[in-house]
Design a protein that fits this description.
Number of domains: 3
Order of helices and strands: HEEEEEEEHHEEEEEEEEEEEEEE
Largest sheet: 6 strands, antiparallel, barrel
Structural class: alpha+beta
Number of strands: 21
Helix content: 25-40%
CATH architecture of the largest domain: Beta Barrel
Shape: rod-shaped
Strand content: 25-35%
């Protein structure tokens, strides 16, 4: 027998099913709605961000580099002779003159050679005096012999004249007259020979004296050289300036040509700037530059590019800047400096300060631009052009008067909107 179910139970089941369906639909709708909601914009304190306003006008195109002050002229002091360092008189940083003794070297051989040659000079000078005395004695003996022959010749001529006079009167035999004539001729020949011997002896004496004098001059030249070598054992600065460095130590054995010290003129300095090799292509000789010695008031000095190193080292190129005008107080060699080289002046361009993140020349980046109320910043794409030290040209994406955030925003790379508190 069939039992009928009450109708109210069926209605109850239907209501429960309807309620369940509605709940499921409500949860689904809520979930969908929440998924479509945009996340809340992160907030940032106004005091922790750096902003700048886009401007139009003249933009200085500059390149910045760190560097040091270096002397225009540096004198390397080299050892002129071999020796051992016995004493160092001056320390680095001391002002020196050309005659200041920096280092004293020891070399007994050089000193002994000078003494030996000095004695050789004295001995040669004594030999010269002896030679002159002997030659004078020989000259006087030769002159005496010549005078004796000349006296005999004169006597023979007188005798010949007498014999010829008597011979005319027939008082002297012809043989005696002939003998007188022969004797006169013989003595005349002897006198001529003696005179030639005197002349030859004088020439020989002069030659011997000259040879000895030449020998003495050679010894004196050697003595001067040895004395200079002895004097060179005291190594002097050779120029006025400031001693930059002493590269030897006491007891060190050095050879000729070894660098001992370095002296520079502190009144003539230039700046050697390290410029990134990627920026060197726009730098040319004669461009204006400023150098900051970071030594307080008046530390900035003007200059011009003097030299560009032809080779790059460790990604940088050395650019020498000739300083113009008086040097700032405290300027000295090896002082660290900041240098800025002016490449060009761009007229009527749109520019803004360089962003901390990115912002290189000829690049596409995104920046947060502040709304008119200044309480919201929206990310916008920006195309940049030529870049300077602190500014960059804006080619597209911003207008004059726009304000953008320049500080690092990498922590908000995933958002397009910021709330400024």
């Amino acid at each position: 027998m069939d039992v009928k179910r009450p109708a109210h139970k069926n209605r109850r089941r239907m209501r429960l099913a309807a309620y369940a369906t509605l709940c499921v639909l409500a949860v689904a709708l809520i979930t969908y709605g929440l998924s479509r909601l945009k996340p809340a914009a992160p907030s940032v304190e106004r005091g922790v961000i750096v902003t700048d306003t886009v401007k139009r006008g003249q933009m200085l195109l500059q390149v910045h580099g760190m560097g040091t002050l270096v002397p225009e002229e540096v004198r390397q002091i080299a050892a002129p002779v071999e020796g051992r360092v016995e004493q160092i008189f001056v320390k680095a940083g001391t002002e020196v003159s050309a005659g200041t003794v920096l280092v004293e070297l020891g070399n007994p051989t050089i000193r002994q050679q000078a003494v030996d040659v000095e004695y050789q000079v004295k001995s040669a000078e004594a030999d010269l005096n002896n030679l002159r005395a002997r030659l004078d004695s020989d000259r006087m003996a030769q002159q005496a012999a010549t005078a004796q022959v000349e006296s005999e010749y004169n006597q023979a001529k007188i005798q010949l004249d007498t014999d010829e006079q008597l011979g005319k009167e027939g008082l002297v035999p012809l043989l005696t007259l002939r003998i007188s004539r022969v004797r006169v001729q013989q003595l005349a020949n002897r006198l001529e020979i003696e005179k030639k011997r005197v002349l030859t002896a004088k020439q020989s004496a002069d030659a011997q004296v000259a040879a000895q004098q030449t020998h003495i001059e050679q010894l004196r030249a050697q003595l001067r050289l040895n004395q200079e070598n002895v004097a060179s054992l005291q190594v002097r600065a050779g120029t006025n300036g400031v001693l930059q460095e002493v590269t030897v130590v006491v007891g060190q054995q050095i050879t000729p040509g070894t660098n001992i010290a370095r002296v520079a003129d502190p009144s003539s300095l230039k700046a050697a700037l390290q410029i990134p090799e990627t920026q060197i292509k726009d730098i040319a000789l004669g461009q204006s530059a400023t150098v900051d010695t970071r030594s307080g008031g008046g530390s900035v000095v003007q200059g011009r590019v003097q030299r560009i190193d032809p080779a790059a080292r460790n990604g940088t190129v050395i650019v020498d800047v000739q300083l113009q005008g008086a040097l700032p107080q405290g300027a000295r060699p090896d002082l660290s400096v900041d240098g800025t080289i002016e490449l060009a002046r761009l007229d009527n361009v749109l520019y803004v300060g360089r962003p901390a993140s990115g912002g290189g020349a000829q690049s596409n980046i995104t920046l947060f631009k502040l709304d008119a109320d200044g309480h919201t910043a929206v990310r916008v794409p920006v195309k940049l052009g030529r870049a300077s030290v602190s500014t960059v040209e804006v080619l597209d994406g911003l207008r004059e008067g726009d304000t953008v955030i320049l500080s690092d925003t990498s922590q908000w790379d995933g958002v397009d909107r910021l709330r400024i508190d």
